[in-house]
Design brief:
Layout (H helix, E strand, L loop, with lengths): L2 H8 L2 H7 L13 H5 L1 H4 L3 H10 L10
């Protein structure tokens, strides 16, 4: 998945980070917007992509090598 796909799905960096709270990240609060922002340049880490694939029920697909 791309950064743009992630933001399009969730609507904002804040909401994308907060979604990870469903998996207990950030003590259930998710990730800070600044952490998500870093993915704009470096890409979304594969482990995070897998988490988002799970959270979205497959609507977003993790990139596979």
């Amino acid at each position: 998945m791309t950064f743009d796909q992630l933001i399009e799905h969730f609507g904002s960096q804040v909401k994308a980070g907060a979604a990870l709270g469903e998996l207990g990240e950030g003590d259930g609060k998710g990730l800070a917007q600044s952490s998500v922002f870093e993915w704009r340049e470096g890409g979304i880490p594969p482990a995070r992509q897998a988490q988002y694939e799970l959270i979205t029920g497959g609507k977003l697909k993790a990139s596979r090598p």
